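User: Hi! I have a protein structure encoded as tokens and I'd like to know what sequence might fold into it. I'm fairly new to this, so please keep things simple.
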């Protein structure tokens, strides 16, 4: 099929572009992506993560405004806009309110998918954007006019990552992420939103997902997949430097990615709130810590998805690559900015109701 031809073709691009090898040895994935590290066992500095339980446009605006100090120039909002009629994406009305107030000249940024579906081609993608209500501002499909290569500093799988060429047109990036489970990644936070979401649909995503020359489009999994995805993220956030910030929305958290649209597994994890930070590792780690702080009944399905896919390797590899801190100060925006714990954030959660 066409998608496999693309994967094989681009997977065989020169290894000095695609894979960072040392002494001609194939890189070896890390381990323990299924083992959670408790906060007290971590070391290093603390970053600041803001938290509100207010799941609304107002809450989204409040969270974003804590971390927007260096968002300037031409701004792209990296958002997963979802498959047609997907029930769990961030409501477009919330995003419209945020952008109208704080980002009136920004564009939403997306890329085409690696799988055949509602967003595989630019034409299909634009039809889906209209169905899902993303019509209130310009949406830039980054790989509509080709690809660009960004360096991966310190990577072991890649020296460069292929991204949508339009990414380089922007000065700042806001990663606005629906935090949820993920079929391959275990969980999808800011790391997944950027690492997969900025890689172009034919080259970059193939490098992350597929070993060249074999028929399984999704054969790269567990720790190796987490590391490849994270190196892709590093390429994009290094490009923006200090002009990138992160907002994660913990709402409608199916164990399925928004890529699965109406076929996503039913949501059984309670809604929590919205987090924001200028540290990508700290915000994704805080979301994972909040999931682990829930009761067994509340987090059973999500923990099974995260650990069975070895998704925690996303966090440890971000730390190894120097992308942020896994320790943080969690600031409660609903209670005067006091410091709280993940356990405090999940007190009194209500069962999810569709």
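Assistant: Happy to help. Inverse folding works backwards from shape to sequence: for each of the 354 positions I chose a residue that suits the local structure. Here it is:
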């Amino acid at each position: 099929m066409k998608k496999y031809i693309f994967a094989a073709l681009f997977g065989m691009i020169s290894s000095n572009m695609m894979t960072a090898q040392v002494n001609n040895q194939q890189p070896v994935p890390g381990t323990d992506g299924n083992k959670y590290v408790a906060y007290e066992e971590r070391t290093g500095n603390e970053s600041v993560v803001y938290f509100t339980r207010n799941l609304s446009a107002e809450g989204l605006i409040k969270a974003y405004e804590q971390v927007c100090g260096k968002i300037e120039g031409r701004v792209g909002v990296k958002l997963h806009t979802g498959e047609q009629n997907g029930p769990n994406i961030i409501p477009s009305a919330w995003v419209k309110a945020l952008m109208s107030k704080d980002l009136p000249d920004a564009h939403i940024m997306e890329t085409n998918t690696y799988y055949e579906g509602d967003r595989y081609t630019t034409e299909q993608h634009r039809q889906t954007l209209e169905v899902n209500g993303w019509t209130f501002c310009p949406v830039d499909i980054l790989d509509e006019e080709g690809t660009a290569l960004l360096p991966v500093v310190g990577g072991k799988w890649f020296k460069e990552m292929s991204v949508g060429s339009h990414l380089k047109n922007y000065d700042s990036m806001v990663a606005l992420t629906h935090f949820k489970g993920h079929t391959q990644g275990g969980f999808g936070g800011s790391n997944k939103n950027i690492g997969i979401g900025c890689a172009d649909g034919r080259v970059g995503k193939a490098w992350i997902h597929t070993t060249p020359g074999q028929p399984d489009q999704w054969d790269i999994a567990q720790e190796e997949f987490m590391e490849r995805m994270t190196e892709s993220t590093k390429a994009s956030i290094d490009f923006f430097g200090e002009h990138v910030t992160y907002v994660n929305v913990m709402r409608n958290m199916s164990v399925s990615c928004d890529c699965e649209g109406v076929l996503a597994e039913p949501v059984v994890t309670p809604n929590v709130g919205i987090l924001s930070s200028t540290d990508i590792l700290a915000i994704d780690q805080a979301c994972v810590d909040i999931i682990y702080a829930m009761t067994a009944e509340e987090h059973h399905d999500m923990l099974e998805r995260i650990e069975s896919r070895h998704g925690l390797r996303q966090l440890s590899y971000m730390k190894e690559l120097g992308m942020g801190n896994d320790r943080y100060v969690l600031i409660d925006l609903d209670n005067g900015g006091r410091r709280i714990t993940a356990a405090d954030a999940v007190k009194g959660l209500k069962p999810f109701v569709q």
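A useful reference point when you look it over: Residues 1-23 have pLDDT under 50 and may be disordered. Feel free to ask if any position seems puzzling.
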